[in-house]
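Hi there, hope your week has been kind to you so far. Would you mind checking whether the tokens look sensible for this chain? I owe you a coffee for this, so here goes:
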Amino acid sequence: MSLKILRAGLQSTIQDLGRLGAAHLGISASGAADSLSLRIGNLLVGNPENTPAIEMTLTGDTILFHSETFIALTGSKFKIDLDEKPFSFWDGTYVRAGQVLTIGPTLMGARCYLCVRGGLQVKKIINSTSTHLTSGLGGLNGSILKEGDRIAFGNLEDVIQPLKKIENFPSTDTTIIRVTKGLQWDWFDDQNRKLFFKKAYQISTLSNRMGLRLRGQSILSSKGNEIITEGMPLGAIQIPGNGQPILSFVEHQTTGGYPKLANVISADLYKVGQLKPGDQFQFQLAAFPEAEKAHLEQENYIRSLKALCR
């Protein structure tokens, strides 16, 4: 029971929900860039939410299935067909042995996820199967998937009743990203804070899973652009000397020395995972109670889907 990569995409990796608890070793959590889509994809095939799947970025893979299985594709919509016939998104589907799934370029957004019932059989490293490209850990040999790679399916011991087709998708609007005040918020005067929220930023081509470099309004700190190195949270927005913000992402460095003006709220991190070079968006300031409410609403949504799997 396995699949084979006939044609590799731009940057396809195996991801689960991340390698938590290893920051003291200099290893960030990594995990799915759009964890919400991964969680829902696993529910659609009856897997636990943290089951490893294939994350595809901008352009997907061509995949041969060596045995019958049950799969789902979630995330942003890509050009997809199964044996040259249209394939349904956000829906669990059986595939037969010998069938070929072709996942082409994105039609919107940055990433999609292929979830297989039973998951993918790869070794856990520090309690996670996630590929951490920066350190070469996890996934399949710690790297992107390549032509000829063969991945066995996991066992079916922990599977549950698959979720039926999703009708109410999570919001795909990435034009607004909500943030809370960062640790060095008071390093920036009112004028620079207003500039930060007033105009749109564009994702630079220099962006990756480690961080998104933004192009737009330069932001200046009144206290300089260096701090004593301290821990770096996921979603932190650093302001380096050139004033162009850097948004730390799933493979972010675990420490940093630039002041942090803001931090993306946890409920909007999945949207960051769908931003691609050239996309434009604006930041919106959220109070902490609003951020907590958004997180709870997202978790309640997942719980409501899990209840349908029983």
Q: What stands out?
A: DSSP finds four helices and 20 strands in the chain. Residues 2-152 form one domain.
